[in-house]
Structure prediction request, 335 residues.
Amino acid sequence: MKFLEYRNIGLRKYIQAFFVLLSLNIGWQFLSFYRFLESSGFSGSPVRPPGVEAFIPLSALVGLRSWLGTGFFDTIHPAGVTLLLAAFVVSFLFRKSFCSWICPFGLLEEMLSQVGFKLFREKIRMPRWLDIPLRSVKYVLLAFFVGSVFLMMSPDAAVSFVNSPYNKMSDIKMLEFFLNISMTGFLVFAFLIIMSVIIENFWCRYLCPYGALMGILGWLSPARISRNEALCTGCGACDRACPGKLTVSSSKSILSPECSSCLTCIEKCPSAGALRYHIPGIPKPQNPVLKKYGLHIAMVGVYILLIMIAKAAGHWETSVTNEDFRMLYSMLDLY
Ligand code: SF4
Ligand code: SF4
Prediction:
């Protein structure tokens, strides 16, 4: 049987860095748009970056609810729904790869883990009796959000929420939360950062409901890491390197929702061919460039292609005009 196989992951860091820089640029543009609203158009930029809607996932979830329930595609934050759907597709096709290839928080978590490794000279692991219940927290949070939106909210209520002034200004409110962060908010972020330094992938592994959703889609994915028992020496380098704490060295295939297709296990494996990433039924490319970088191109390419299709279909730019935004901003305290 033919398989699509890859061993190269060096480019992943650059891809992650690209999405972090893109996110910072979006944040900068959105701050300038905020200054525009705040100054009644006298300073800042009138251009609002649609990509900021990636950071209001709950609004995107309600937008998805309204679309599935009524056929009405969110025109207030269409980019948010588009980016959520693109993350779904990439995570399904390439096993939760959104988390380790595209999400800017994924790279932040990896960097904080590196700081912890430099400080403590070893990876600190949660004891198993605590790790298992803590891992379920992100699924509980996911169940709460999905249940609130899909079970407790009617399709018409979802459409009303999408068109509400509160939703129109939800990204602005999020920005104001960070610009005027309270002591409680600051302490929560400080706690998360410290815990992510001490415990590898603390936020992603235990608390992120978005990652939990991507993990469930990844669990359904045909893509997987497989181990060739004949070539494996049992050295355990893959187990030690795996950020998902998976026991790669004793598994035939990795089917866990915790696997984010980061490919670190393959990179660290000293025995060529012992581990491979493959999608059953997809033939191995013969072109040397595709052989080396095909997976990178496919993961990012699918994500960007879906965004381009959504843009062409008119599901990217908000229908809210700058005049509406300025009027809503002047009444922001009422929402
Ligand atoms: S098994 Fe672990 S190291 Fe290998 S791709 Fe999955 S998460 Fe990464
Ligand atoms: S690193 Fe490679 S050789 Fe070592 S246990 Fe894992 S799969 Fe086997």
About this structure: Residues 10-312 form one domain. The first helix runs from residue 10 to 38.
